[in-house]
Write a structure and sequence with these properties.
alpha+beta; 356 residues
Length: 356
C-alpha cells in the first residue's frame, strides 16, 4: 500500500475557510468565463450536448440499428461528447456504485490516507489530490481515488478500499457490465468510420489489453466557486471516457467558442471521445476540450472510467483506410506513453511561457 505521508492538506479539509488558498485561484484570463453552474444548467437556449438512445443498438431491424450508429457518428464528429441512455448497465448497480463511492469519501481522512498514492514516485493508484505543477503552481479543487478496474488480471487489489465492505464486489460487477458497453460503443464507432465492427477494439488491444481506469472525482463545496475549477480545461488522452455523476452539474465542454454546461440527464453516461480515438479516426472523431466547475452548495462526485490502450504495446496512428491523398494523416505515429509525455511537455512549456 502507498505511503501514509500527506504532501499537503486534502481539498475537503479546506472547505471551512472563508477564502480559498491562492494556489487554487485561476489566472485572470480564465476567471471571466467561470459562472454559476446551477444557473447555467437551467438554460435552455443555445447548443446542448446530444443525447443518444441506444435501445435499438441490438435491434433486429437494420434501419433502427443504422439510425443509432448514424446518431453516434454525428455526435462524435460534431461534439466529441454525448449523453447515452438505455445503455444496458443495471440501474440498481449504478446506484450501488454511487453509494460505495460516496461512502469511501465519507470515511475519516485518516482512513482514506491508508490508501494514499505517491505521485512523485509514479504510484498514481489510490487516494490523492493534484500536486502543484512546478511551472504554474496551480491546483484544482478536487480529491480523488484512482485505480484500474479491468481487465481482471491487471488489477492491483491491495489498493482497492476494504471499506465500505461491498466496494470491491460492486466495483467488480460494474467493471464487467461497463466493459460490455465499451465494446458495443466501439462497434458503433467502427461502423461509423466505415471499417469492420471489431476494428477499433482490436486496434486498442482487445479484451485482454484494453484498460479501464476508474477515477472517482470528489469536488467538495467551495467557498469561492467563482475563483476555482474542479478540473482545468483539457482533452482526455484515453480512447473513450465514460462518466457517471451524482447528478450535481459541473461538466462543461468547449463548443463553437463557448463553454456549454452538461445537463444532469437521469440514467445516462456522458461519453467523451479521447485523443487516442481522435488519432485512429484521423481527426474524424473529435476529442473535445472540457473542464469541471465547482459550487458552494453541494458536493459533486463523478465516476470517470478512462478506456486506454496499453502504454507501449500499441502504436496509435490513423487507420490506413482513412488516409488518402485528399486526407493525409493528421497525426504522427506514437505509443500511448509517448502521447501522454508529449502533452505533459507541451503543458509545461505553455506554463513556463506564461510565467516568463
Amino acid at each position: 500500500m502507498a505511503a501514509e505521508v500527506v504532501a499537503g492538506p486534502r481539498v475537503e479539509q479546506l472547505t471551512g475557510l472563508q477564502a480559498i488558498p491562492v494556489e487554487y485561484v485561476r489566472p485572470k484570463e480564465e476567471l471571466t468565463s467561470i459562472v454559476d453552474v446551477f444557473e447555467e444548467e437551467k438554460k435552455v437556449d443555445g447548443p446542448q450536448i446530444p443525447i443518444i438512445d441506444l435501445k435499438d443498438m441490438d435491434s433486429e431491424d437494420p434501419v433502427a440499428r443504422l439510425r443509432v450508429m448514424e446518431e453516434m457518428k454525428k455526435a462524435s464528429m460534431d461534439w466529441g461528447v454525448m449523453h447515452i441512455v438505455n445503455h444496458g448497465v443495471d440501474r440498481d448497480l449504478i446506484d450501488q456504485v454511487r453509494s460505495v463511492g460516496k461512502a469511501f469519501f465519507d470515511l475519516p481522512i485518516e482512513q482514506k490516507e491508508l490508501y494514499a498514492n505517491d505521485q512523485k514516485s509514479g504510484k498514481i493508484d489510490g487516494y490523492g489530490s493534484k500536486l502543484a505543477n512546478n511551472e504554474s503552481g496551480q491546483l484544482e479543487w478536487e480529491d480523488y481515488f484512482f485505480h484500474l478496474i479491468f481487465p481482471e488480471h491487471k488489477r492491483n487489489m491491495s489498493i482497492w478500499p476494504k471499506e465500505p465492505s461491498d466496494y470491491i464486489e460492486v466495483t467488480q460487477e460494474y467493471a464487467r457490465q461497463l466493459r460490455r458497453l465499451v465494446s458495443k460503443v466501439l462497434t458503433l464507432l467502427s461502423l461509423g468510420l466505415g471499417v469492420k465492427e471489431e476494428r477499433l477494439e482490436k486496434e486498442f488491444g482487445g479484451m485482454e489489453e484494453f484498460l479501464l481506469q476508474m477515477k472517482i472525482n470528489y469536488y467538495p463545496k467551495c467557498p469561492q466557486p467563482d475563483l476555482a475549477l474542479g478540473v482545468e480545461a483539457h482533452t482526455d488522452v484515453s480512447a473513450l471516457t465514460f462518466i457517471l455523476t451524482n447528478m450535481v452539474p459541473g461538466l462543461q465542454v468547449y463548443y463553437e467558442d463557448k463553454w456549454v454546461t452538461a445537463k444532469s440527464v437521469p440514467d445516462s453516461f456522458v461519453v467523451h471521445i479521447g485523443d487516442s480515438l481522435e488519432i485512429l479516426s484521423n481527426g474524424k472523431y473529435r476529442s473535445i476540450l472540457h473542464r469541471g466547475l465547482v459550487n458552494k452548495e453541494k458536493v459533486r462526485i463523478s465516476w470517470a472510467v478512462f478506456c486506454e490502450p496499453p502504454k507501449d504495446e500499441v502504436v496509435l496512428k490513423p487507420l490506413p483506410e482513412l488516409v488518402s491523398e485528399a486526407e493525409p494523416p493528421r497525426f504522427t505515429p506514437r505509443t500511448f506513453s509517448q502521447h501522454v509525455r508529449q502533452k505533459l511537455f507541451k503543458k509545461a512549456q505553455e506554463a513556463l511561457n506564461q510565467s516568463s
